[in-house]
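Title: Request for sanity check on DUF4440 domain-containing protein prediction

Description:
We are preparing a figure and want to confirm that the structure record we downloaded matches what your pipeline produces today. Could someone re-run it with the sequence below and paste the raw structure tokens into this thread? We only need the token string, no images.
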Amino acid sequence: MSADQNRPEPDAAKAELDELMRLFFSAFTNTDGPPRTDRVREVFIPQGTIISQTGDRSVVYDLDSFVEPRQRILTDGTLTEFSEWEVSEQTEIYGSIAHRFSEYRKSGVQNGERFEGGGHKTTQFVRTPTGWRISSLAWEDD
């Protein structure tokens, strides 16, 4: 910690944000066992929002409405061999808030058809008494 005990060093904050994103992306992987979708609730604040953007159409989810259908398709055979990972990012930290713009890739087998894709995510973070958490995330597939 710096002289101001309420402000972590930038490198420590960045490392914590990197880990939150790693945990978020890995929550949906089912290539080496069942997905860990419970991690979504661990990395988000309870009131977090997740937004899927397709052109001019937005779908806004709370954590439950986002996790439940994904847990189902990742465990019922609909979506297998799935993984998603961040390939690049830019993170800006301002005191107790932060923003990250990410490019990601994904691959898997959906309904028996292999696919690959990617897109972009924008993620906002807040520093809570228990550490950094995601407050909102929006994504758009390529």
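Thanks, this matches our download. The domain at 10-141 is CATH 3.10.450.50 (Nuclear Transport Factor 2; Chain: A,).
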